[in-house]
Amino acid sequence: MSKAADTIKTQRRSRLPRISINRMIPNILTLLALASGLTAIRFAFQERWELAVFAIAVAAIFDALDGRIARLLKGVSKFGAELDSLSDFVCFGVAPAIILFLWSLQDAGRGAWVLVMLFSMCMGLRLARFNVASDDEDTPEWKAHFFTGVPAPAGAGLVLLPMILSFQVGDHFFRSPWVVSGFLFCIGTMLVSAIPTYSFKKVTIPRQHFLVTMLIVALVIALFASVPWLCLTAILMIYLGAIPLSIRSQRRYESGEEVDEVLDEELDET
């Protein structure tokens, strides 16, 4: 009787679908991003501020890679999407807020802690709204070129901008609780706002611009290796400067203009 039961169990196990290692790679990258975000909090408790910000940047890189690799390897899954959202909340909603609290706001009173919680809550609301919108099948195709509000990694980078600037010019102004509190409130508001911001997921590079694009990427990498904080500041400033262009671009899409034509014009301007 036991042999028959063992045979049935073996047959059932053999029918279970096996998961390709390719489908696991995006989830592994997401876990690496989560580990980087948690490590950033550890560095903050140790007052190793530059390493804390660097860990958030590493988490953003892993976050940018996991979705794209999932699509390339055909490993997109509901499990991966949910894991990615939870990782984003910790890495870009909780970790930056705690880092800024430990850096500047510990002695600023209860109001400062309210702003820390507000930023994290705004990040959670932003991610929840994104998940709901991604399941809407009636969304126009041109909407894929935009995010609603500032995306999570960009929000984390922008809210840490005072700390990044302090690495270059000193703590005297940017470490002020008033400055940090203002950034927490403003960036938190931008996360849950209806402001359209560019999504570069579907941007394609013309063949004739391939070499120029690679040269620009090589230049950015070289600058990041040589002057990382200045390079990161420039990227964040350029992103902020692109928001008015994204607002104008969405209005033109809504007016019925051709998507590809408008996108090409906006990219040429930026």
Give the SSE layout:
Blueprint: H1 2-15, H2 21-45, H3 49-72, H4 78-105, H5 110-134, E1 146-148, H6 152-159, H7 161-169, H8 177-192, E2 196-198, H9 210-226, H10 228-254, H11 259-269
Antiparallel strand pairs: 1-2
Short description:
The chain has a single domain (23-131, 143-263), classed as Four Helix Bundle (Hemerythrin (Met), subunit A), CATH 1.20.120. The chain has helices spanning 2-15, 21-45, 49-72, 78-105, 110-134, 152-159, 161-169, 177-192, 210-226, 228-254, 259-269, and strands at 146-148, 196-198.
Q: What's the overall geometry?
A: globular
> What separation lies between the terminal Cα atoms?
74 Å
Regarding CATH, which class? Mainly Alpha
Class inferred from helices and paired strands: mainly alpha
Number of helices: 11
Spans where pLDDT lies below 50 across 5 or more residues: 258-263
| CATH architecture name | Up-down Bundle
- Which sequence of strands runs across the widest sheet? 1-2
CATH topology: Four Helix Bundle (Hemerythrin (Met), subunit A)
Structure characteristics:
single chain, 270 residues, mainly alpha, Four Helix Bundle (Hemerythrin (Met), subunit A), two-stranded antiparallel ribbon, globular
